[in-house]
């Protein structure tokens, strides 16, 4: 092979690598990340207490200061916005749910028993616990407005 051909190929590879890296960097900047989930509730304080005392979320500063919002941390850069104003709870489907992981599903169910909160397994069996094929334990419960919540012991 002649020297010019090798230099041309090397230059082409370098340019392609630069373009690929640049495109990848642009793709990463363009990817969306979850910022918050919002739920519309009847009783703000009842829902706020549920998410704080049962689920274990911490409140964070909210900008509206109108008594109709509570914001809670659900991840390093994510929040749950609880918004008052719903006329009545509506029916929600179990497959449309929020999922939280806890260190121990069994300890969590003991807490639910203490507060007289019902839960079920994936098939709807009361006080049941589902073991997924990967070994993760999970349960489902509903918040005061009927939103479904999965609780599992996933450690990933």
Largest sheet: 4 strands, mixed
- Please tell me the overall pLDDT: 88
Widest beta sheet: strand line-up: 1-4-3-2
Coarse shape: globular
- Using only C-alpha atoms, the radius of gyration works out to 24 Å
What portion of residues belong to β-strands? 25-35%
Helix count? 3
Low-confidence stretches: 3-16
Order of helices and strands: HEHEEEEHEEE
Question: How would you summarize this macromolecular structure in one to three sentences?
Answer:
This protein has 156 residues and is of the alpha/beta class. It is built from three helices and eight strands.
Task: Describe this entry's structure for a reader.
This protein is α/β, with parallel strands linked by helices and 156 residues long. The protein has three helices and eight strands. It has helices at 3-30, 44-55, 105-114; strands at 36-41, 58-60, 69-75, 78-84, 97-101, 130-131, 137-142, 148-152. The strands form two sheets. It has a four-stranded mixed sheet with strand order 1-4-3-2, with helices on one face. Strands 5-8-7-6 form a four-stranded mixed sheet, with no helix packed on it. The radius of gyration is 24 Å and the shape is globular. Mean pLDDT is 88; it is low at 3-16.
